[in-house]
Structure prediction request, 778 residues.
Amino acid sequence: MLSQALAITGINIRSIPERWGSSLVIVIGLAGVVAVFTALLAMATGFESTLKATGRADAALIMRGGSDAELNSAFDRDSTDLIKQEPGIRAGADGKPLASAELMVIAELVRKDDVKNGANITMRGVEPTAFMLRPQLKIIAGRNFTPGLREMIVGQGVLRQFQGAEMGRVIRMRGSEWTVVGVFACGDAHDSEIWTDINVARSTFGRIGSSSVLAALDGADGLARLKSAVAAEPRLTLDVLREQDYFSGQTRQFRKTIGFLAGVVTIIMGLGAVFAALNSMYAAVAARGKEIATLRAIGFGGVAVVVSVMIEALLLALTGALLGALIAYLLFNGLSVSTLGQNFTQVVFNFKVTPELVGRGLVIAVLIGMIGGLLPAMHAARQPVTTSLREQ
Amino acid sequence: MTRSGFVIANLFRKRTRTILTLLSVIMAFLLFGLLQSVNTIFSAGADFVGATRLMVQARVSFTSPLPLSMVPKLEAIPGVARVAYQQWFGGVWQQNTPLIMFCLDPQRYRDVYPEWVMSDAQWQAFASTRTGMIVGKQLAEQFGWKIGQKIPIASNIWPQKNGSKAWTFDLVGIFDGKDEDWKKRTNLAFIQQDYFEEANQFGLKGRTNFFILKLTDASQARAVSRTIDSMFENSPDETKTQTEKDFNISFVKQIGDIGLIVRWILFAVFFTLLLVVGNTMAQSVRERIPELAVLKTLGFSDGSVLGFVLAEAFALCLCGGLVGLLLASLAGAMVEKGTGGQFQLQLDGSVWLLGVAAIVLMSAAVGLLPGLRARRLRIVDALAGR
Prediction:
């Protein structure tokens, strides 16, 4: 039976070039479905991997209780100093706690493809320890800002997506002028930020304390010790989170939204493709009605016919899926876009087409190909041989 | 048999094929309708808001506060009729449902937004109840809030004097919109600025995120904006003034390149669809070549044979397109209802118009090639099967 099926499949496939039109419908239909599916999920994956790469497991982010995001959090200077003295925080080379008080404010920049609509950009005022807590951050052009001066360094993602923050540019904020003196690369969500000295940011934005404290944890139980110490401190109401968890937690909503969109679009497009596949496979078996009947007459079994039609549909569907994944990869992989993150500021990220996504696209294609092939295949096998042979 | 009867009869000569093609077209237009209405949300902003109001925010970002001491200065500018303000409260209902909730001055806000419909008694109750809150109809219905209830709402920004972020407000009014467009935006909640200033832990007073200016004359918008922005230039409280409509557009644009992605999907869908339907039409013409030759022999002109094929394509696209758009309307309404109006996906006139344009374009694209082939047929060759 298997050899029969393979023999018929061979004939079918060799005859595809003679009926390109209808075979192409399946290939293109599936390419469309898989390309859209892959591209949408590549966006979610890119966003997720950018945020998941941000934050270390051995650092804690401390915010005011119930804040959810750094933007909403604030505490005064006394609390900031108090937090840094809590147990569970690792000491740096100088013997002081390795912790950075950071002030998050928002500035507006205009997207490169826009002329006037401002988009929110995170501006992070940091202490020198901030760079020790993020050793992956490298200045790739220019130099670091000088504490005490109105200077700032810009993440490479900001530079990629927004205008007006190039090296040497002067940005006006709240009646004062700031100079961009450097560009940094961090490979994570910080690439979407502008960094400056915390004290200069405080005076310009009229803030006294900080938004958050990032602290290196001391050993495996550091987080637990810090948490219990903070809970026992009546002067402080704080949330202590592992830095990694804070950033990973921000991806949930985005994943849900994009997942929903991708699901709806894929189902509807997929149904469309199923109907198209059914159509062209029906046409394919109708065109070969006589040929199939002849095969049956000389002893090929009905199951072999069914299998051969299914294999043809699956092969066409898989070709389409690979084509679609390739299109999605060529058009979208690495494409840089930005969207609003948890802090109500832009997060720049790249589309990421992963092998896993391509695999899921192929599974969808196989499903559609099976459905599209099965009914026509049964139809072909059921036709009485004599009727088919007599047909014109 | 009439010509239209002939077209219909031809469509049903291969029932399975016609139905399957129709279903593909329906799916494509269902997606078209849904995506296009998403696109409308993200691109157009709110047309109905008009340009009679200006939004003043801090130039650096609307998250930076501006001092309320600016109110008299703004009011003194010629062309400004009334000034309202609103400050973001960061309200959160129950575990983690964020609310669009602002602190404001009731009387000022009422003067600037006549589009909200609420009884005088409720407006007065809002103005005279320090812990008062009014909410839009949609929000009240979504959470089942009734006037007179005490509503517990947390703020993810502002603690009260006792350090707790759990606030409680007295619901004293429920407002609705004056027309369909405004009714759809009643997912807002407002509380009193005075109470907020008194009760927040930091003793924050006299600051807000936005000033909203009602103009005496909409044509003055540009001039007034310029006056305001130059007035506060070089101060720590530099302003950025734009019409409410422009503000809404740029606010929505923050979400990013959704429009671009939607257009890509639409492109993929239509390209796919074009091939499916185009192939079907080509096939059906191929099969009927001898018949078409007979028609010509009977005296039908080349043009009317082309017309038959085009009419068939058009009928297919029209039926599928209209049913698809109708399904999209139903699905959109369901999504809107299911999310309590949070996600508004209704197909307005513009989407239908675009849909019809797409139907016409599609029919031409898929019908033209096979149609021209039918038109070019030479009777002798066609009858001989050459």
In short: Chain A touches chain B through 62 residues (CB under 8 Å). Chain A has two domains: 2-52+251-390, 66-236. The two ends of chain A are 29 Å apart (CA to CA). The mean pLDDT of chain A is 90.
